[in-house]
Design a protein that fits this description.
Blueprint (H helix, E strand, L loop, with lengths): L2 H17 L3 H12 L7 H14 L3 H12 L6 H16 L5 H14 L6 H14 L3 H14 L6 H16 L4 E2 L12 E2 L3
Helix pairs in contact: 1-2, 2-3, 3-4, 3-5, 4-5, 5-6, 5-7, 6-7, 7-8, 8-9
């Protein structure tokens, strides 16, 4: 058979298993795509393999696949998207280890400062500082984002975050959390140490 047809058939089979959440089978067929030389679907296969690992909460394996992709000499939408997806895995890990997540996201930004997703990833970094309750550092990061990316589609979100943090920093009694109680009374207040 023509290798092009085999490649497309493998992709179709893998995509079918992927669409019905049969992660192990999808991974097998995406893996077979990786074995084909001169394959234009290599980055696609790595990306989809990473997604199957994420679906199974095997985050370290997903991160390894994304790392392969962002280092790929073949630049395409899959290698570009891997940068953001890798940052998302670090961001979602923040509740386990925020320092590690901050370190990894900063390294990603340093390694790929001109990527189209850098502004969004810097927002993750600012949010990680916020999660850590380092409001001053979070505010600095948000202001830097607004300065570097004033016309980014997410700039209004950044402006809102800046206002929120400025309000929290100016309130010496604590942070207002807009989560009303069941009876509709004022939200709880958390006092910063």
């Amino acid at each position: 058979k023509n290798i092009g047809n085999t490649k497309e058939e493998l992709k179709e089979l893998a995509d079918r298993f992927y669409s019905v959440n049969k992660w192990r089978y999808a991974r097998q067929f995406y893996g077979k795509l990786l074995d084909i030389k001169d394959n234009s679907l290599v980055n696609y296969a790595h990306f989809k393999i990473a997604k199957t690992f994420e679906a199974e909460a095997v985050i370290e394996n997903a991160q390894a696949e994304y790392e392969i992709l962002i280092q790929s000499p073949l630049r395409d939408e899959w290698s570009d998207n891997a940068y953001l997806e890798l940052a998302k895995t670090y961001y979602t890990n923040a509740f386990n280890d925020p320092e590690y997540s901050i370190k990894k996201i900063k390294a990603l930004i340093d390694q790929y400062p001109k990527n189209s997703s850098t502004a969004r990833i810097k927002i993750y970094l600012a949010e990680l500082y916020y999660i850590k309750k380092d409001l001053a550092k979070s505010l600095d990061e948000y202001r830097l984002i607004l300065k570097e990316y004033p016309h980014d589609p997410l700039s209004s979100l950044v402006e809102e975050s800046i206002k929120k943090i400025e309000k929290e920093l100016s309130n010496p009694e604590g942070i207002d959390h807009p989560i009303p109680l069941k009876d509709g009374s004022n939200p709880e207040r958390i006092v910063l140490p």
